[in-house]
Amino acid sequence: MAGGRPFALRSELPRDTVRRMAFRTDTASIEGPGAAYERLARSIARRIESGELEPGSKLPSVRSLAAWNAVNPSTVVAAYRVLEREGLVEPRAGSGMYVAPEPGAATADEEFGARPGSSPGRAGPTGTDLDAPEATPVDFATASPSPERFPTVAFKDLLAEVLDRDGGYAFDYQESAGWPPLREAVADWLAETQGFRPDPRDVIIVSGAQQGVDLCARALLAPGDRALVEDPAYRGGAAAFHSRGAAVEALELDPEGLDPDALARVAERRPFRLVSCIPRFQNPTTLSWNAERKRALLEFAAARDVFVLEDDHVSDLAYEDAPGPSLKALDRDDRVVYVKSFSKILMPGLRLAALVAPPRLRAALARAKRDADVGTGGLAQRALELYLRRGLDRVHLASLRSEYGKLYRAALDALAELAGSGVRVAPPGGGLSLWVELPPGAPASALAARAKASGVLVSPERSFRRPSPTAPDRHLRLSFAAVDGAALERGLRILATLLPARRSP
Amino acid sequence: MAGGRPFALRSELPRDTVRRMAFRTDTASIEGPGAAYERLARSIARRIESGELEPGSKLPSVRSLAAWNAVNPSTVVAAYRVLEREGLVEPRAGSGMYVAPEPGAATADEEFGARPGSSPGRAGPTGTDLDAPEATPVDFATASPSPERFPTVAFKDLLAEVLDRDGGYAFDYQESAGWPPLREAVADWLAETQGFRPDPRDVIIVSGAQQGVDLCARALLAPGDRALVEDPAYRGGAAAFHSRGAAVEALELDPEGLDPDALARVAERRPFRLVSCIPRFQNPTTLSWNAERKRALLEFAAARDVFVLEDDHVSDLAYEDAPGPSLKALDRDDRVVYVKSFSKILMPGLRLAALVAPPRLRAALARAKRDADVGTGGLAQRALELYLRRGLDRVHLASLRSEYGKLYRAALDALAELAGSGVRVAPPGGGLSLWVELPPGAPASALAARAKASGVLVSPERSFRRPSPTAPDRHLRLSFAAVDGAALERGLRILATLLPARRSP
Questions:
Q1: What is the pLDDT of residues A365-393, one digit of tens each?
Q2: Has the ipTM of the complex gone over 0.95?
Q3: How many CA atoms lie within 13 Å of A457's alpha carbon, on the beta-carbon side?
Q4: What are the pLDDT digits (tens) for B26-74?
Q5: Same structural domain for residues B431 and B416?
Q6: Residue A212 belongs to a domain with what CATH number?
């Protein structure tokens, strides 16, 4: 069908083909269990999530969808309402219902896409890019260190050392849960850096933090289960939960963390199984939870039989006050699945993160890893083990802290000068980003678009919210991970010119 | 709960705790959609698949489970019947219902576990192992080349070359679908070696074939969908489908492939969405489908709106007749998701495989990859690109074919001498294993256990069947991937002594 034409061209296909492709297997789904509107919503949600119905595409009218499926129009209305609440579809005034624009994807592209300064070709940045820095956009959107800051040389030597030592065994299958010596090294490293030492058997080596989140979803969530995420948040977590058929509820984050009363209210409405959060230097708000909120979440989890997924991506990068202990260090009831990314503090391309499982979930998480990809490659694991054992990470982190600390202070100073324009920023004390509040009348998405046209990339608040025309649009996430001092200054100067005119004092 | 004690000790916990742990969240699940027995079955299946209910553990009696859940005993009986049909539980005469022993895991351990000759420690094989070969078991169970056969030296040089060329960019995020130059190199390589050249945009680089299978499950299967697998088969595929909440049907493989009439009969009973198969040198039967069966499957798929997952692990290793074209090369209707593993023909620890998507599934599969782990690491992808572009794989494959061809013929010759004992083997023409039929009265699982005690590891047929006391038990899979000529001879000599006494001529 469509003779090998790319999917994106579907809207050019005859109307009847579109209908058949989009809804042809509905029959089976619609015959499944549950109320008719739920079955219909599930069937449409599945097609949205598989990409079969494209982001931004128009959905059939209530009348025609009702006719195709031989249901009452009110069933379709109810189904669309469910999908709208899930953020999967959105109404457009006067023109019907649309699939929401790329759920979760805008952010993934910003976080993980090709860097503006890098060539998509085979050899990294081209000479042109390096020779003409003025032509390169200032990239405040990428929240990951630039490749020049990676410990590449150290790893090159370690890879060679591992291959000289282990030969082909470094390229053989590894245990699904990870190479045992690395699991031990990580346990020791967590004891030194995070204040808790897990049983190495509870440490599972995963291919990056996103896989840690996804395995947690596989082990804990069944279709129809509910998961709760912070709002705003990086939307990759919600995407993993959605892909399990789980319902995802987003709870507004306040400056201290998630409000225990709000949590309780959500749980009253319907129990949920998992709360996902970043309690230190949250992405994108940069907030760190206070001690009371951390305690309250753990008590809530124990009382309600809920698990907590703690994503720790940059707690190591504190320039002022440390952000306090991790939830895992406080976890007395084995409620917390802790995921430590090595992407920000070392290099994302290692594709290595460590997951610390509550003992009772160890077997289920290891099985999820095996079913997902058998196991993570051994070579990088062996090199990381040497890297941690020799304390090379401490040298590297000290240098990152010093370098980023300067950028952090420079950015705060420059933003302080914009206070007269109504720009506000709460110093997070660490991390790789600032969460900049704009003055009223300066919508962040519009400003981000104008900034892009002026060669400055920033992430507007809506990249981290469920797609909705009424989502808050007040903040920009401004990351200094991938810039140097000169670019920082230049980019902030450009941003300042785009703000509404200064109010007279 | 259980204060951090390992999960395996649960049977030592007080009875009431066991019940609470195993069934405490049932309430929510049981309140879901569907008939009561289906909901109960789903709820138990989920706990089995998450590992919460352990393989081999006893399930509650019908009476007590009915009482706990306030349902009629006949509901529990019906739920247990569903689970039995799925191979998740099994009755034991006179003692009730049990969770089936490790679904899919016995084989995964054999295929991917630590090799008997390798140390679990940090430096590969220990001196002791190398110095005392007579003490090392003969490993006919591992179907993957031994590390001594890996192109380690070539890759060590390529990794260094990539890092000199690309620096930190080799450690940066890559596109989710893979590094574009590798996708192009794979497309060219497939044109040369497999007779079809996909659009490079349809090539997705995945972290090993299991991830390819899993992404296919994510993109295509929703809870309640049906998938069909070959029987017998490596059970990792079924595990990935089960993890999506799909129902998995296993269809007996005959010497020509899957029988189209049997396929049609299964589809009559209830439509399915995906057929997973290895049409060339199947694992474990070593069978290759004939041309007519390949055509019939593709026609069936087009007529019934079914997708085909083609797993190609060793088609490159032919010693006699080539096994014919891949299904993908014959796929006119964009029905085939083709997964090419580089684990057997290069090295499993690279964790690289190439998936070729039908154009209409490209977006859904790339999205599944992004949700699963953002993307595969760039360093190995860049090294593989150079490896393929320079034709180093052809040199390596020629050497593997020569070496394995000798082992293949030696194994067939030695087994021919056992024909008098009733041992039969059909020469597959290639691959890394033989599928050995034993004489009646010599159950394969018992022979495998005796062989293990005598220092010879083989995989009995039941490792590749749904756990069931009535599963066929007539064959051994005997892999020569990880042995040398001397070990092969020694191992077969030992196996011969374990066969029932020769019938007199």
A1: 999 999 999 999 999 999 999 999 999 99
A2: no
A3: 22
A4: 333 344 556 788 778 877 877 776 666 766 777 888 877 887 777 888 8
A5: yes
A6: 3.40.640.10
Domain count of the fold of chain A? 3
Terminal alpha carbon distance of chain B: 65
Q: Is residue A503 domain-resident?
A: no
Give A105's contacts in chain B (Cβ within 8 Å): 367, 370
The amino acid at A405? G
Query: Can the peptide bond before residue A232 be classed as cis, meaning omega within 30 degrees of 0?
Result: yes
**What is the CATH number for A470?**
3.90.1150.10
Residues of A in contact with B382 (CB under 8 A): 122
From the list A1, A38, A152, which residue is nearest B33 (CB)? A38
List Cβ neighbours of B4 (8 Å cut-off, separation of 6 or more): A199, A334, A359
Instruction: Residue B439: give the domain boundaries.
Output: 105-150+395-498
* Residue B167 sits at the chain A interface (C-beta within 8 Å): yes
* Chain B contacts in chain A segment 366-395 (CB below 8 A): 367-368, 370-380, 382, 385
Q: Is the peptide bond before B284 cis (omega within 30 degrees of 0)?
A: yes
| Angle at alpha carbon of residue A260, lines to A258 and A266, rounded to 5° | 90
B38 to A33: CB separation less than 8 angstroms, yes or no: yes
Residue in B closest to A109 by C-alpha:
B175
Query: Nearest-CA residue of chain B relative to A150?
Result: B168
pLDDT digits (tens, 9 = 90+) for A97-153: 878 765 433 334 345 544 544 433 333 333 333 334 445 899 999 999 999 999 999
Question: Which of A391, A411, A433 is a domain's end point?
Answer: A391
CA B316 to chain centre: 18
Q: Mark whether B95 and B121 lie in a shared domain.
A: no
Asked whether the beta carbons of residue A168 and residue B152 sit closer than 8 angstroms, the reply is yes
Residue A485 CB coordination number (10 Å)? 13
Model-level pTM greater than 0.90? no
Task: List chain B residues with CB under 8 Å of A125.
Answer: 169
Domain final residue pick, B364, B390, B416: B390
Residue numbers in A near B376 (CB within 8 A)? 207, 351
